[in-house]
Amino acid sequence: MMQTTVSGEIIEPYAEALLSLAQSQQLEERFNQDVGMILDLLENSEDLGQFLANPLIKAEAKKAVLRQIAVNEVHGYFLNFLLLLVDRRRIAFLGAICQQYRALLRKLRNIVLAEVITTVELTEAQRQGVIEKVKSMTGANEVELATKLDSSLIGGVIVKVGSQVLDASLRGQLRRLSFSLLNAA
């Protein structure tokens, strides 16, 4: 319940405002790149996330760090957005706001995010096959793949699109076979 409240009252409105600004200035793709850079920074630097989320650190110190990190990397409007988040004491939600921006942009462009879990890296031909399968399943214009490796699958692939799961892994096939054998007995 708490996550829903935070999402509804903080994350979504800020992400929507960022998308609205991007649309009004025709900067959707530029902001998408800026969002990606920020998400990469937050993922690779736990210290940065903790620093920005710490309420004991003064806003000016946070702004100085953001300016130093982002001034030559992101669009000026996006930097102003980051500074606004500091002023409004919402910078702790930066990662979630960035992820929500990407989700809104995907929805606007009819792009589907598909999580693909395999035991080995996919070849380009396999990637294209997965993309075509997901397009036919969803009717999306484009598909973004987020690939993860999982050695416990034994072989095959699992594709997750929203709440749909296509389990073509060996582990999944063995589980289904075991289930059908138990039900047959």
UniProtKB/TrEMBL annotation:
It is found in: Cellular thylakoid membrane; Membrane. Gene3D superfamilies: N-terminal domain of the delta subunit of the F1F0-ATP synthase. InterPro entries: ATP_synth_OSCP/delta_N_sf (IPR026015), ATPase_OSCP/d_CS (IPR020781), ATPase_OSCP/dsu (IPR000711). It is a peripheral membrane protein. The keyword Lipid metabolism does not apply. The keyword Membrane applies. Coiled coil: none annotated. Keywords: ATP synthesis, CF(1), Hydrogen ion transport, Ion transport, Membrane, Thylakoid, Transport. PANTHER family: ATP SYNTHASE DELTA CHAIN (PTHR11910). F(1)F(0) ATP synthase produces ATP from ADP in the presence of a proton or sodium gradient. F-type ATPases consist of two structural domains, F(1) containing the extramembraneous catalytic core and F(0) containing the membrane proton channel, linked together by a central stalk and a peripheral stalk. During catalysis, ATP synthesis in the catalytic domain of F(1) is coupled via a rotary mechanism of the central stalk subunits to proton translocation. This protein is part of the stalk that links CF(0) to CF(1). It either transmits conformational changes from CF(0) to CF(1) or is implicated in proton conduction. Belongs to the ATPase delta chain family. This is ATP synthase subunit delta. It comes from Candidatus Synechococcus calcipolaris G9. The gene is atpH.
